[in-house]
Design a protein that fits this description.
The complex is a heterotetramer of chains A (350), B (502), C (327) and D (339). By secondary structure, chain A is an all-alpha fold. In chain A, 69% of the residues lie in helices and 0% in strands. Chain A is built from 14 helices and no strands. Helix content of chain D is 46%, strand content 17%. The chains are: A mainly alpha (350), B alpha/beta (502), C mainly alpha (327), D alpha/beta (339).
Amino acid sequence: MRGKKNPFPLSLWPAKNIMKTLMNKKIPNFIFTNQFGLLCLVLVFIAIFSTVTDGFTSRFNIFALSRVIAIDIMIGLAMMVVILTGGLNLALGAIGVSAAMFGGWCMEIMGIPVIPSIILTLSMGAFLGWVNGIITVKTGVHSFIVTLATMSIYFGFMTMLTEAEAFRRLPELFTDFGSAKLFNKYVSPLLLLSVATCFILFYLFRFTDIGRKLIAAGANPEAAELSGISVSTMFIHCHVLSGLLGALAAIMLTTRIGAAIPSMAGQLGMDWLLPAFLAPVIGGTLLSGGKLSVFGTMLGAVLVTLLTNGLYLLDVGEFWIRFFLGIILLFAVLLDKAREYFTLKSVIVS
Amino acid sequence: MNELCLEINSANKSFPGVKALDQANFKLKKGSIHALLGENGAGKSTLIKIITGVHKQDSGLLLINGKEKILNTPNDATKFGISVVHQERNLIRRFSVGENLMLNNLPKTALGLIDYDKIAIQSKKWLEIMDLDIDPNTTVSELTVAKMQLCEIAKALSLKAEILLLDEPTSSLSPQESENLFSLLRKIVRDEGVSIVFVSHKLEEVFNICDEVTVLRDGKNACTSESINNLDRKKLVKLMIGREEQIVKSDRKSDDNKDAILTLTNIKTELGHKDIQLELNRAEIIGLYGLVGAGRTELVKCLIGLEKITAGSVKINGKDVTIDSPKTALEKFKIGYISEDRKKEGLILIHNVLDNTSITIWSQIKRAIGLVTDKMIADKINPYISELEVKTPSIYQLISNLSGGNQQKISVAKWLAAGTDILIIDEPTVGIDIKTKAYLHKLIIELADKGTSIILISSDMPEMISLSDKIIVMKDFQIAGIVENDHSYDSVSAEIMEYIHK
Amino acid sequence: MNIKLTSLFKKDWFGLLIVVLISIFIIATIKPTFLSPFNLYVLMVSTSYMLIIALAQMIIIAIGQMNLSVGAIGGLVAISFSGLMEVYQISVPMAVLMGLLIGVGCGFLNGYITVKSGISAFIITLATLYIFKGINLGVTEAEPFYNIPETVKNFGNAKVGNTPIPFLIVIPIVITFLMWIFMNRTETGRHMLAYGNSIQSAELLGISSSKVVISAHVISGLLAAIAGMLVVCRLQLGTPNIGDSWLLPSFAAPVIGGAILAGGKVDVIATALGVLIVAIISQALVIFKIDPFFVQIFLGLMILLAVFVNRYREYKQEVSRKIFNIE
Amino acid sequence: MKFLFSIVASSAMLLSSSVIAGSSDTKVALVPGGPHPYFAAWERAGQDAVKDFGLGKADYKVPAEWDLSQQNELIESLVGKGYNAVLVFPGDAVGTNKILGELDDAGIPTAALAGCVEQPTMAKMCFGTDTGHSAYLGTKQLIKSMGGKGKIAHFTGFLVDPNTTLRIKAVEKAVGEAGGGVEIIQVIADIDAYEPADEKINAFMAAQGGEVDGIVTTAWVPAVVASQALTNMGDKRIKMVGIDHDEVVLKAIKDGYVHGTMLQNPYGQGYIGSYVMDKIRGGCTFKSNAPWKSTAQTNQFIDSGTVFVDISDVDTYVDAMRNISLDILKTFEGDFLDC
């Protein structure tokens, strides 16, 4: 069934398109997109968990869930922008932690007020991302290997400079933001921040020339270069953006924990890698680059966090969660290959 | 004696939108050296791919020593005794020569380990046949290109190959090395009973060693197994490119206001070009003609900044400029390049018509904070889509779903939308159906009339003669000669041929 | 004679051997206890399992792929090995066999899915990393297995006669020798390197890529399993977080040993010397009381440096091939 | 999808057959900082508390890794599941305060167990071994066994563990009071896991083994690995004071390689902690003039007792710990609570 319009790979559903199709009663093409499938899956799991476990819909759990989802979305977005180039950013966790510790140092030791410190933290993240970008582009080495090396370099330097000491006395204004509650105590403001970032990125990739160039460079670097796009600059932009979003995710995690702790993203920041891969890949971002879905990544992050929380509540044993996430990642990756195979194999319209 | 060791009769093969082979046939006599000739797009490479098992023919038979064989993978071809020596070598550069020769059945010692001494002895036998006195333990990467090629032929012999296919074997050999290769080829045909399919664009080599010639043109046989002695250079060239179809008499008035928009003076490039002179006037079409490996595409890629120009000056409207990237070429000097490889360098297959056509104009049409909506783009590109009559259900259709002809129209529309002053078009009509081809020719002429200066690269002689005002003939990365085109096919094509085979 | 010498110089491992000898000499002059029997013993112990881990990654680099689940396989086998002995009182040889089988099984899974799905091994092994670690945590609930049979414990501390050489290093040395034989003297080994060099020409020679990829991953899984069990002997217990810190060193040693990550060029002896260099530097840091986290920075820098050097060498070759030599 | 449904269905049945509920509806969650042998005693302590005090539940739940956000996530999901009292070993002296505050808003009493959080905090109390004092006593014992002079090394736990800084300062204090004859030549921290501990301690013994005369270990895993190292080397010259009651350490004491060990009281902490939580939920509050002790981190500290065990009483350490717990329990309500 060739839909009237095969949507631009990125868009969830432009408003006018839905209205038009509803009027002439044809199934909107959006039904077939990956994002709709995810939305149904999320709703199904919400239904299951709220019936099977009593604590799921409690105010406390929803609030806690909203915070974890917020951070996982941000981490997913930070990895998505690098997957766009067909590459990977293993140093995402290390960049986030280093930026957050730098921010903690600014706020606690240097006494810099909160807002300038946050700006400094974000620029530190962007700088570390820029370093990844420059090395990858200048040497032509696959970004996986470059970021594998920079992961341990960044984390090592951070730990040496801070002697693995946490910054615990952060200003109240900063730490309260993490536990503030909105919509009569159901949702954390962090979630609003993440959703807002999603819309900003959606606007960037869907409605601006830079965004379109980033996607084109990721899809076919040779063709993009010959069409007047400086592919190396675009790849560096992606890594800078990834570093920035990684720093933002780390700031959100720091407000949540209330302290900037070296081990917040685990050994070498590797704990971030699972959520960072799961959200975009489940969300429909092609691992070979050139196709991404911002809202897909958001829904991917929601689905993963929902599942983890549900498994915790179901007393299935918190230890088996990592196993399930591994299985889901494998299925998502196999699905991703099938999707890529499907798009290229479709029928020829002469 | 001369029964056929390899026979292909009435093979057809078509790709989306174009028929590559149309009832082509090929007969290789045992113990003979047979030349397979044809210009770009004549179906030569498709036939080679069928012989070597890379592609399967849609219909038609392939017989080896009289028995029909089905080749599903390149491996089957090797099994049935057909070996190939490609341009890009198939040897493992880090292994030793001996190991490369024996890799698929390495001799083992009693313990099942590789016996390198046995390898040396056994491989020595094959190397001697090729007069290669190199120690089998030297690693391949230390050899010269010529020696590597001889090793590859030795490997084919070690695989008990009866039919040896050499694809442009002398493209990176010095004349002296080529001569050595030819004498060896004659020797192995005589002594080893091997038959050789020799694919080359250097006609003097064909006359030097081949017994028979098959020429392909537009997917059909211009001649089949013609013996070499009743052919001379002129007749052969005529077979290769002689098409009597009428030349599109372009009513281009040759106005002689010579304001040069682009001048290249004694250009040398990193890739090996030497003292290139070129002057492109406004609204003029210059043709760059040459055979495969003449360095035309490479020259153009240096011009738009993909590769480095090491010496000489590039002037745009008389001013000295340096173009360091396609981005500067497009944005500062309005130079566009339509690539010959549509699928890899021209278009983004997984994106739709809207994106591919507008990729060059996003930064031009963006509003505040970089805003570029689908509607803005659609308004800008729809006129070009309709003007070029691109058949697509909607502008959101994926490029991979369009036919070859429509894809080529999109890659042209992309640059029309960008509004370039200088447009470089590389092999515009390779693998395009006749109707679209004629349409593209008309379009190129209209473009020039409207003031765009065009550099046309093509190895399609009639296309070149009907379109370009002036034809520059290139050979071995240098300019062999410049032909003023008066659109009379015979005189111009003869003059070009003169330069090609000087 | 000098032909022999020059060809020696061109070998990767010769340069590394010089670096190892010089660093030992420097450290020993500054701190004589560096050469004390006990210190050599400790050095050899930490080198022992690291050597096998590096070989487990090296064989995958040989075919131009990457195996992120080396640590997870090692950890899973470590807890299964110790768990079987503690919970089910399985005899040591039987437990060793089952441990190896688990390693082979995990390796086969990695190889099979990579070949059948056509997805890059890096992504597949990232997913199986979490699957194997998930099984590990699920089974042990993060509790180590303590009472390991005496024979295993003794093996962990035993020394060869009264020399400082621990039994633990004997197996890795044998395995390194076997791997050298495999990579340089067996057909499958050479086919793997050929595959790593260029998949297209390997297939043209009738080398089946699925056989090569699956056997490489199976061997990698087997080696990871052996390393996991050696660590259990060393630590005298099976703790779930064995293998968590293996990823970086498993890449650093082969890359220091001149391996090309794109595949086709690995050197067993150079990799072993790479492991030795990492061990010596880490040991030196402790002696000179330098911050232990410097090891992380050192490993990262070494990977980048080695990758740059290889990239530069490849770039040199590429340029020379591209220029049209018409002289 | 079918695969996931089957998991959900099977675990739902599992849920219904949980432990038989006691009279009171208090459901205590005992949450350590991460997987570690020290906390194993909490599991039994919880089960005994349910039997002895008739609690609804007292379950020992372990985060998969030593990671504060994983500990927070686990606590949040436990509260979501209905646990209404939380005893926590702080993943970070300040970081954990944040979640304790949020639990308090939700009306759930919390207390720090075996490690304290820095004030101001919403934790009702900090009930654990005075780790600083315990390290101080241990170092004193070590110095005594070394004859008052020599060089010592100090191996301690994770930097994220709130007790680590207390222990490092306490060892320095004890050495300071030894009149200059004793000197700390190296402190190796962050090695409370087997692989890093094994690597670092053996590297240290190899490099500085000759110069060091005494070793004080103030964390479980380093104590085990150090005792093992001394036993392997058969070295009785170097004196060592360990911590906690791992059989390897106890065996080394019996064999004379280790001078003694500072016992903490994990069982008592879990047992009495659950009791206090039940009382608090029952409406009791802490007396304003309760006999709190104070440490560097908090002045709402109750000492769960520590005792030095050497070769003489190494076999009877279990009774020693048990007696301490019973004494504390007997007088607890009288001294601290008014209900």
